[in-house]
Design a protein that fits this description.
The protein is mainly alpha-helical. Helix content is 90%, strand content 0%. The longest helix has 142 residues. It starts with a helix and ends with a helix. 6% of the residues are buried.
Length: 219
């Protein structure tokens, strides 16, 4: 029974702590159990050589071999669990390294993205400045067009006024020419009239009293 309890305890211990320190502990425990059980066999054989029931209660060599086999099996299982755990640790470490690499790559991408973002912001600012400048130039161009349109209208009005003045001037010139020609045409008639007047005054005088008496009866 003592053998069974010890092997059970060893098996439970192997189940609880499957790590790198378990292997030497289990090996030492196996050796101790073998030595203890061998001592129990020797003590039982020397103390009670004549008692058959005592021999039956002591573990036999087959029992010891079974215990050793069981302990070796537990040790092998512990080693397998240790290897599995070690593999898991290796995989986790590999995943961790991969995650760190991805994190570094992501940091690089974020840094590059920030640079691109800053460059885009600068380009947007430059484009906005160019757009504002274009708007100013467009406003100036529109004002210039409005001024040109106004000047064109004023020029057309000035042309019309000049044409009207030219027409009026032409009429005035024609009228002046007509007035200038009219006195020249009237000058011969005036000369004839003066001749008649001179003829009247050049006639010899008549007998005025007789003529006066002959005309005065009408009064």
């Amino acid at each position: 029974m003592a053998k069974k309890r010890i092997s059970d305890l060893l098996h439970e211990e192997a189940q609880k702590s499957p790590d790198s320190e378990t292997e030497p502990v289990l090996e030492a425990t196996v050796e101790e159990v073998i030595e203890v059980e061998a001592e129990i066999i020797e003590d039982s054989s020397t103390d009670t050589p004549d008692k058959t029931p005592a021999k039956n209660s002591n573990p036999t060599k087959a029992d010891l071999e079974a215990s050793v086999t069981e302990l070796k099996t537990a040790l092998d299982q512990a080693r397998e669990r240790e290897e599995a755990l070690q593999q898991q640790i290796t995989n986790l470490q590999s995943n961790l390294d991969e995650q760190k690499s991805l994190m570094a790559d992501l940091k690089g991408v974020v840094k590059e993205t920030r640079k691109v973002e800053a460059s885009l912001h600068q380009q947007i600012a430059n484009l906005q400045a160019d757009l504002d400048e274009q708007k100013k130039l467009l406003n100036k161009h529109q004002k210039a067009q409005e001024q040109a349109k106004q000047l064109k209208t004023e020029l057309e009005q000035a042309k019309k006024a000049a044409m009207q003045l030219a027409e009026a001037n032409s009429k005035l010139i024609e009228e002046a020419n007509a007035l200038h020609k009219a006195p020249q045409a009237a000058q011969p008639q005036k000369h004839k009239t003066s001749e008649r007047v001179s003829n009247i005054f050049s006639e010899p005088p008549t007998d005025e009293p007789a003529d006066f008496a002959s005309k005065s009866w009408l009064l």
